[in-house]
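input
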Amino acid sequence: MFSRIRSYGISGIDGIEIAVEADVSPGLPMFHLVGHLSREVSEAEERVRTAIRNSGIPLPPRRITVNLSPAGIRKEGTAFDLAIAAAVLCCLGVIEPNGLEEFTFLGELGLDGTVRPIRGILPMVIASVKAGVRRIFLPKDNVREGRAVMGAELIGVTDLKELCRLLSQRASIQGEFFDPLMFEEEDLPSAEDYGDMIGVESVKYACMAAAAGRHSILFIGPAGTGKSMAASRLPGILPPLTMEETIELAKIRSICGLLDPSAPFSRRRPFRSPHHSVTPSALVGGGANPRPGEITLATHGILFLDELAEFSPRTIDLLRQPMEERKVVISRMKGTMVYPADCMIAAALNGCKCGLYPDQRCQCSENDRNRYLGKISGPFLDRIDIGVEVPRQKIRPMHQVPGRDVWTTANMREKVMRALELQQERFSSEPIRYNSEMNSAQIREYCPLTPEAEQLLERYSAGGNTSLRGYGKICRVARTLADLEGKEKIDEMVLSEALSYRSFQRKYWGRG
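output
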């Protein structure tokens, strides 16, 4: 007897339909799985057979063949166990096969027949609903995650016995549906506030510009001046995630097994700060069986690279293409994976190995500094929109320091939100959302300069101070600064501020 059951796997961050076909026929007793399978899928043969037997269902001595189609796509994970078991039980007459085309089956089986939770439920449920199959059997522990998908009916099961009982009484099946309250999380204020950083107004203004236009930013200066503090407070001045962004980020976390059961759909923007010993595949994704990296986990949020010069030069340069294309393409013999990388890059860097430059106490020679800073390539620096120096502040006893600066996270966020509203209106008919995403044609249309600003930019460009990419970045940052100031045109003052954010290359690297 033959049966076909619908299930789903993962390709990149999306679900992909897999047909589980089973045939039980007379012959030498065996259980054989085919269909370009990974090791964990091949091992489903023993899991399913033992789970059926331990659920009290007799498994007659027959030749059982199961094919996971299409055979040209490599199958990974343990999500197919429940579908394989259901297909076999259909062939044995335990489950009535009529009408099963309206269900999707997802879940891993334990040897005792229990249905265990799996990774990647969210993208699989989304793909099933898009395909028109809205009734989905899945592990009970994954139901809450699946309820984020509008239009899906989630039927949670704990073991094979319950699955057989539900399918024998299909008219009485009642699943769970979309829960809009999952996305109504209160926008709590950040515990870290820019008001705790006394002074450094220029640094805070640069942070506002970076957040408002989604620009990459580099903090450079002596050790202990607040570079990491400024970066860690960036999420507090960003708006909460939209529902679409929340779902996309939850899909990524679901695939990686990082979804927090207590708050699976948090509206807070991610802040990822990998250690400088991170491997290339851990940062941008990849591996023998490709998985998303840190830059993908930071999608719609911030990827912070602290102590930038301590990273491997090869690792840093791997970020160059994702910073431009906002995606990571990983090609292997098994196929090509595309992961999103739409995040803000923030980095912190000391001016030398001892961390004191440009302080007079720095004992590093010019060659020492060049060797230290030379780990960061020019093409990577050219992709930095905003470079800001974080100066050393005068140290005063804690009880003499004012309680809070006027530049607080709340005040800065108000200005950022106003600038974002201007961008939303400006790009309402465009496929982009932020100033940092403008192409050459959009720069010409949306970045009008006053005559004085045009002359200043011409003088700057004539001196060979920037590349064509750097020229575009200056215009994009200037547009964001004008939005923060509420100016329709980019004037000389705004442009001067944007040009100052490129001066770090000349001071520390002697170029740009």
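quick obs: The longest strand covers residues 14-25.
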